[in-house]
């Protein structure tokens, strides 16, 4: 199969470096190094950037340079010549940037170098560095575990796991890029050769392996140093193997004193669950690292029909018992519901974050079954629908507010500042916009007052981060600020300090205006006296420094939905914390809460570098050193 490699080359001689013109947009993005795009650099050594290529692979090469030509030279000295042609771009020196296209087959083992008229081409950042193609056989691991066995990712099949204190006789099956087995061939490494079946053995001693940087074995095959600990299905410790780098740079086996002799487990329906607190000895295991799909932003319950709950990629119409995924892989980073119609929902996704290629502002009229794109906004910070007139929609961007009065067909800019739009559900004529300063409208957004002084602070230092309206009175608004909890009794014109507690988000319970919830620095607090005093509002298993409240919301029945470590939990006023729905954890292990303690299903639990497996009835926990 022919592969494509696009080279963005700004090639310099060893005595000079190139620069790009600031007056023109150049196709060369960074001017003092060679840039490679797809498949990109595989790794870097102190004096070289290396791209791995399999033997007999053919690449189509294209890119840019200032040279009229250049050569790629094989290990035996064979030259492949590339001619270039001018473009309309120039660099900072006024030199014409040129482009090239060509293809090349890499049919020799070893390093291919870039040259021009006999001189090695290099580029300068802080020092001169040479860029090379390194050609090797493709290696398949036959006898040791790979990272793919833990992560489930096919691309990790070229990463082997090495354990402290072990000597490994690594067996590899070698082929070229076309799949031809390399029988009785020299592999270009330490005089090693394959046997008649194309297999080669490489001996690796983990005691010395740490000195070999980067962690490469052969070609694109690399290794990660790995620890492990094994418990039986009752949670009793069986064995452990942990390593660390000593003062001489050796990876040596060590004994850890904080490994528990027993961890708490729960067995149910042929599954094994581990108490999350049992993993505290693994400092790198963070619940937030678990890969939860659709649950890492705040759930949005409809203000009049609490059974309807929207998330960024799913919707439930039965209070979270079941969820429907949006079509076309749509996943919205900003969203809003029509407060008068639970079937109508708005969401915005950026071009950068779009998986399906769909981006912009979308609307559904049928609970997320179908979406229609209504605008091409590049950036959106907030969306708000007028409770008094569902045809009127507001969009806040990083530096403006726009309004549509016809369901998104036409838009008009109404503010040249602002970002976050709030509409008072108890008084829709009252609109607040949070930006560099506070803007307040009491006539439905026709006119805005620009308020510099909040709580008498004329320095502009007091900033509102969020506001919440209350059933206590349509004139009363609470605000979370960098000075504490603020309260206004005249629709946001004058504010007074209610409590000096730090806050970032705020919400008033619609069923009890004295219950005010806030978050700050990953923790959540509740006031039951109208904001005068606050106490912690967190599950008993919550550990500061490990767990984090990402966001929260409250439905019309006073049920709190909190995203903790990327998982949506819910809590009624007099109830316990519970997970909203396991479907929101489809890419992660399942969870259980028993006696207000959280348990993780042991098999295939994984964070950034911690992997948990159940193997032959034993619980094996791996920690990978990247």
What would you report as the Rg, rounded to the nearest angstrom? 30 Å
- Helical fraction equals under 10%
**Major sheet size, sense and barrel closure:** 8 strands, mixed
Percent strand equals: 35-45%
Structural class: mainly beta
What's the total count of β strands?
A: 56
Unreliable segments (pLDDT under 50, ≥5 consecutive)?
A: 8-39, 291-295
Please state the overall shape, judged from the principal axes of the Cα atoms: globular
Textual characterization of the structure:
This protein is mostly beta strands. Among the domains are: 3-135, no CATH class; 138-225, no CATH class; 228-281 and 615-625, no CATH class; 387-444, no CATH class; 452-537, Beta Barrel (Thrombin, subunit H). The protein has 2 helices and 56 strands. The strands form 12 sheets. Strands 3, 4, 6, 7, 10, 11, 12 and 13 form an 8-stranded mixed β-sheet that branches. Strands 15, 18, 19, 20, 21, 54, 55 and 56 form an 8-stranded mixed β-sheet that branches. Mean pLDDT is 84; it is low at 8-39 and 291-295.
């Amino acid at each position: 199969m022919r592969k494509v490699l696009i080279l963005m080359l700004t090639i310099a001689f060893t005595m000079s470096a190139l620069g790009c013109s600031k007056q023109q947009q150049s196709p060369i993005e960074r001017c003092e190094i060679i840039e490679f795009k797809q498949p990109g650099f595989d790794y870097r050594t102190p004096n070289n950037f290396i791209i791995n290529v399999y033997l007999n692979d053919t690449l189509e090469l294209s890119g840019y340079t200032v040279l009229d030509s250049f050569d790629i030279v094989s290990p035996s000295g064979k030259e492949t010549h590339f001619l270039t042609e001018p473009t309309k771009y120039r660099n900072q020196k006024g030199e014409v940037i040129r482009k090239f296209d060509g293809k090349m087959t890499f049919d020799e083992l070893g390093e291919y170098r870039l040259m021009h008229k006999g001189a090695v081409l290099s580029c300068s950042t802080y020092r001169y560095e040479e860029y090379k193609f390194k050609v090797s056989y493709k290696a398949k691991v036959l006898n040791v575990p790979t990272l793919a066995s833990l992560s489930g990712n096919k691309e990790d099949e070229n990463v082997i796991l090495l354990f402290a204190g072990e000597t490994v006789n690594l067996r590899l099956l070698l082929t070229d890029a076309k799949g031809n087995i390399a029988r009785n061939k020299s592999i270009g490494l330490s005089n090693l050769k394959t046997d008649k079946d194309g297999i080669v053995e490489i001996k690796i001693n983990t005691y010395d392996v740490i000195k070999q940087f980067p962690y490469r074995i052969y070609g694109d095959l690399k290794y990660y140093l790995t620890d492990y600990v094994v418990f039986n299905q009752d949670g009793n410790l069986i064995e452990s193997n942990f390593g660390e780098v000593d003062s001489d740079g050796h990876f040596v086996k060590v004994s850890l004193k904080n490994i528990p002799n027993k961890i708490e487990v729960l067995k149910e329906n042929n599954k094994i669950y581990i108490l999350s607190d049992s993993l505290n000895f693994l400092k790198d295991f963070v619940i937030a690292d678990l890969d939860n799909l659709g649950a890492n932003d705040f759930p949005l319950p409809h203000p009049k029909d609490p059974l309807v709950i929207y998330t960024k990629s799913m919707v439930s119409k039965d209070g979270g018992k079941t969820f429907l995924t949006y079509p076309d892989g749509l996943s919205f980073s900003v969203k809003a519901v029509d407060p008068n119609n639970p079937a109508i929902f708005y969401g915005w996704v950026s071009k950068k974050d779009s998986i399906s290629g769909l981006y912009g502002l979308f609307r559904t009229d049928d609970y997320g079954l179908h979406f229609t794109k209504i605008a091409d906004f590049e950036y959106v910070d907030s969306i708000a629908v007028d409770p008094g007139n569902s045809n009127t929609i507001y969009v806040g961007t990083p530096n403006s507010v726009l309004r549509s009065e016809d369901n998104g067909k036409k838009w008009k800019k109404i503010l040249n500042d602002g970002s976050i739009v709030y509409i008072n559900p108890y008084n829709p004529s009252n609109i607040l916009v949070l930006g560099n300063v506070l803007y307040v409208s009491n006539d439905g957004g026709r006119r805005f007052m620009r308020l510099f002084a909040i709580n008498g602070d004329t320095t502009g230092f007091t900033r509102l981060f969020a506001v919440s309206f209350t059933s206590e009175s349509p004139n009363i608004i609470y605000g979370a600020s960098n000075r504490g909890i603020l309260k206004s009794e005249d629709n946001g014109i004058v504010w007074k300090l209610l409590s000096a507690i730090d806050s970032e988000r705020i919400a008033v319970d619609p069923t009890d205006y004295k219950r005010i919830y806030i978050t700050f620095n990953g923790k959540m607090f509740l006031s039951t006296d109208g904001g005068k005093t606050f106490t912690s509002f967190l599950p008993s298993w919550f550990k500061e420094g490990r767990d984090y409240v990402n966001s929260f919301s409250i439905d019309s029945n006073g049920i709190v939905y909190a995203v903790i470590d990327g998982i949506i939990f819910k809590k009624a006023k007099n109830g316990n914390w519970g997970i909203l729905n396991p479907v929101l954890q489809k890419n992660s292990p399942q969870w259980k809460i028993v006696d207000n303690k959280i348990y993780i299903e042991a098999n295939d639990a994984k964070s950034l570098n911690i992997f948990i497996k159940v193997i032959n009835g034993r619980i094996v926990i791996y920690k990978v050193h990247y």
